[in-house]
Specification:
Transferase(Phosphotransferase), domain 1, six-stranded mixed β-sheet, three-stranded antiparallel β-sheet, 7 helices, globular, Kinase-like_dom_sf, Toluene tolerance protein
């Protein structure tokens, strides 16, 4: 990871749109050239992020996903910003629309098609060994060429082997806990994403 000077950061920031922030500051910036900066704060000086910065995890996960032919952001570089400390990833965003946005706008038949596509995609992720604890409809993008891909990928592991039934079930539970995404979903669709019963 390279050091990001305050002057370079301020130059980027001057013409950027803030897409996400909290009371600690900015988290995601859309730069004037269409690329993005994602900033991760260190929650504790004794955190494991001292040794494994989230920005580097994001970059490593992007490389691993591309080897598995899973669409995701294309990383340009990773940085350390010192005052205040942030690990920073600079990347080209994945083109497309999130499923959360699409499913709120689509008609019922198109929703059924999207949910069927989503079920196939998640099964494919699990078969390829991808475990994504932050899997939700806001982190899955339908690309212009009709593929599904992942964004916000720092909280993800590529295990190199198909997931066990237990890990698949935990992943489905993570997916279903976002109640606002599923409030209007028919039960026959929800059944596609229910954890498998134990045998």
């Amino acid at each position: 990871m390279q050091r990001l000077s305050d002057s370079q950061f301020q130059q980027w920031r001057a013409d950027a749109n803030v897409l996400e922030q909290d009371h600690h500051g900015e988290k995601v910036l859309l730069l004037a050239d269409g690329t993005m900066l994602k900033l991760f704060r260190r929650k504790s000086w004794f955190s494991k992020t001292v040794f494994f910065p989230p920005a580097q995890r994001f970059a490593d996960n992007a490389a691993a996903l591309r080897k598995l032919d899973i669409p995701c952001p294309q990383v340009i570089n990773t940085y350390k910003l010192l005052n205040p400390y942030r690990s920073v990833v600079h990347y080209h965003p994945l083109a497309g629309e999130t499923l959360r946005g699409l499913l709120n706008a689509e008609q019922s038949l198109e929703q059924l098609e999207l949910f069927a596509k989503l079920a196939e995609f998640i099964t494919s992720l699990h078969d390829k060994g991808v475990y994504f604890r932050s899997l939700h409809l806001g982190n899955i993008v339908l690309t212009p060429d009709g593929q599904l891909g992942l964004i916000d990928i720092s909280d993800l592991r590529c295990l190199g082997r198909p997931l066990s039934r237990g890990m698949r079930n935990r992943n489905y539970r993570h997916l279903l806990r976002y109640e606002q995404d599923w409030a209007m979903t028919p039960n026959k669709i929800l059944q596609l994403f229910q954890p498998s019963p134990r045998k």
